[in-house]
Design goal:
It holds the Pfam family Nnf1. This protein is mainly α and 268 residues long. 71% of the residues lie in helices and 0% in strands. It is built from 8 helices and no strands. The longest helix is centred in the last third of the chain and has 90 residues, at 178-267. It is rod-shaped and about 185 Å long.
């Protein structure tokens, strides 16, 4: 015989415990009593630290450029004109026919929609490029610097006119020949080598001068020694002449004396 299933009343306490753990359907979450009045007080703390432009001083180098419009000079106008020409030339390459070739299916089924997308994209690109170009001009202060360049050129031309224009007109570098450009690049190196060789030449000349002085001193010493020897030779010769006469007289008397003695000895 099989065992009877466990009695059902044993499961009722567990089910009742599960039911008690679930929240009551009618219970509504009570709003916090202290969070509501504290919320307005915490809002100022959540604001960004630099929301008030007058709270912290801004360095002078970070101040935004002046809002006064700057009138572009000839070079600035030419720069803008060149940018517009380049932009137009670039966008013209994206013609409607070329755009349709990129989307043949849409061009066949909805050509009007594709043309509208093409016009919108061209307008969008042109607007973005112009906006970015103007931003670069403003951030880099290109217009102001080009205007300053115009002023410097005007001052230089005015100074040349005051001087009568007698100065030599500079030759553009791109018109110079290869030999002139090579000499210009080597001038600094050759000048340095020339200076170094000049210093070495001065050192060699100084050494030669010292050697020449030593040779002259030795030559003068040799001449002095030769004169001393010559004087000594003259003294010896003079002494020989004096001694020669004295010795000759003494020898003659000695000879006569010896002859006399020999004669006396022979006579006796």
């Amino acid at each position: 015989m099989s065992e009877p299933p466990p009695p059902q009343p044993n499961q009722q306490p567990d089910q009742q415990q599960d039911v008690e753990m679930l929240p009551a359907p009618d219970a509504q979450p009570q709003p916090p009593s202290q969070s509501q009045p504290e919320q307005p007080q915490s809002q100022p703390d959540q604001q960004p630290p630099h929301s008030d432009p007058t709270s912290d001083p801004i360095p002078s180098d970070q101040l935004p450029p002046s809002s006064e419009p700057v009138i572009p000079g000839p070079r600035a106008q030419r720069l803008k004109q060149l940018f517009q020409q380049t932009t137009t030339h670039t966008l013209d390459k994206l013609s409607p026919s070329n755009f349709r070739e990129c989307f043949p299916t849409i061009a066949e089924k909805a050509p009007g929609t594709l043309d509208n997308v093409h016009r919108q994209m061209i307008d969008r690109l042109s607007t973005l490029w112009n906006r970015e170009f103007e931003r670069i001009l403003e951030s880099r202060q290109v217009i102001q610097k080009l205007n300053e360049l115009e002023g410097l050129i005007a001052e230089a031309q005015a100074g040349r006119r005051r001087d009568g224009g007698g100065g030599e007109r500079p030759v553009p570098p791109h018109t110079l020949g290869a030999e002139v450009v090579l000499k210009a690049h080597l001038r600094g190196y050759l000048r340095e080598q020339e200076t170094r060789l000049g210093e070495r030449l001065q050192e060699v000349r100084g050494g030669n001068g010292r050697l020449f002085e030593e040779v002259l001193a030795q030559r003068r010493e040799m001449e002095r020694l030769v004169k001393g020897v010559e004087n000594m030779v003259g003294d010896v010769r003079g002494a020989s002449e004096v001694l020669g006469g004295v010795l000759a007289g003494e020898l003659e008397e000695e000879t006569r004396r010896v002859d006399g003695e020999l004669a006396r000895v022979g006579g006796g």
